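Session log. Operator J.P. requested a structure for one protein chain; no other inputs attached. Running the standard single-chain path with token output.
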Amino acid sequence: MSPAIPGQRRVPAHGKRAFTTTWWGQAWVTALEDSTLEAGRLSRGRTYARKGMVRQITVAPGQIKASVQGSLPRPYRSSVHLPVLTDTQWDTLLDTVAARAEHLAALLDGEMPAELVDDTRQAGVPLLPQPTELDPDCSCPDWGYPCKHAAALCYAIAATIDADPFVLFALRGRSREEVLAQLRARRRASQETATPQAPAGVPAAAAYSRWAEHTHRLPEPPEPAAHATALPISPPSGTGLATTDLERLMSDAATRAARLLAGDTTSLHLTQNLDAVRIAASAPGPEWFHHLIQNTGAKPAVFARLTRAWRYGGSTGVTVAEESHSPDPSAMTTARAALATALTEMTDVPARLRAWRNRLTLTDHDIQLRLGPDTRWYPYLRDNDGEWWPAAPSGADPVAALTPVWEQRSPKHSTGQTPLQY
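Structure written below.
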């Protein structure tokens, strides 16, 4: 049996879905509400839960139970039962978690991966409850199924499931410690049975010789001619084109051509909108910036954010601004530990770091670091509207990447204190 959960934390006072903030917590509430047509009893159960009438909750394999205060002085004994998984089902569930390192990393970070739930459901393992599985019971004389006291218990435990998805594992029959121990055993077994295959290949010297025999160097690009961007005549009248605009475009085309000859092909596959961002990042002036936004149909704030991302990181910086990905969990764990150590040394207060996919967020300072596909860390700051903006060039080291934005955000660094260090 798991230890008792201290008296429930206060839940939001309004809204039918106010008991949860995650999709898996809401799945628990949905299973409860889909299991009955007793809307009135569910409503009174929500009221009881909001008022804190659910006393200490105990989680055990296959059940949750608590004392629930009703209208009489003596509280009622309420419980909700859920079928535990068979050993075969547990093997399937644990194999699914162990197959992808990011599943375990997400669970340890308080997240329930939707892919994990989908994979186990397809294999016949119901981790999240189905409406027909919840079986309420109560010592009160109410014949409702569930009664308002059992409903209050279900709503009260939802907030705990929200914060710790391992509660669902405990309800299905195995505690957090048991699950982690069995996952570690599976990992050791897979490492012991793995037999590395010797890669086929040729000696490095022979491979280089073959490459050198068939490789021809491109000629060095010629030096740009003097006044290469000067137009011989003015643009025709009535076209709306200005000489300076065309000269800027000619200069940009010549610069890109020189880079292509030097082997830089990063600009070959840009979309029209991304090429507009690239041009805007070269600071052509407010009028150009305005026209680029108009002609691409982009939202000004989004376009400005991508322009800043390009200035700090080129096309990779834009990718980091627009997309998230799931990196190697060990890289995120190492970076998180390094940041926590550095911040604790600076502030003497344990850092509150939130990890999600490739992003580490300092929740108390509105600072975020994003790990790019180039394995570099890109710093971001959150503005007053809650939007994240690129704030400085990327760094190979997370602490070094954090330092410039920390100095911007923290007034302590303006007094001459030492910047973040290992």
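Operator note: The two ends are 42 Å apart (CA to CA).
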